[in-house]
Amino acid sequence: MEARSPRELEARNYLEKHRIMELLNYLTSALLFFRPALKILGLCTADEVFKDDGHGITFEKFRCEVNKRTLEIWSAF
């Protein structure tokens, strides 16, 4: 991804300097991965048991997918 204007380059440097993309990746992962977030969002009950049907998503798979999609989104800028 190459910056097209000085303003875009400045914005990219700011994001990198303050590690904003890393923060967004972490917050997204935390929101979707950690179970307390699921309860807060009303997506599961406190006593719900998660069953493994063989199609489970590991933390590594989840993290890679979030990173891939984040790069796709930010490549548009």
Automatic annotation (TrEMBL):
InterPro entries listed in its UniProt record: DD_EFCAB10 (IPR049760), EF_EFCAB10_C (IPR056587), EFC10 (IPR039879)
EFCAB10 C-terminal EF-hand domain ranges (all copies): 13-70
Source domain of life: Eukaryota
Pfam families, sorted: EF_EFCAB10_C
Name of this chain's protein: EF-hand calcium binding domain 10
Annotated organism of origin: Catagonus wagneri
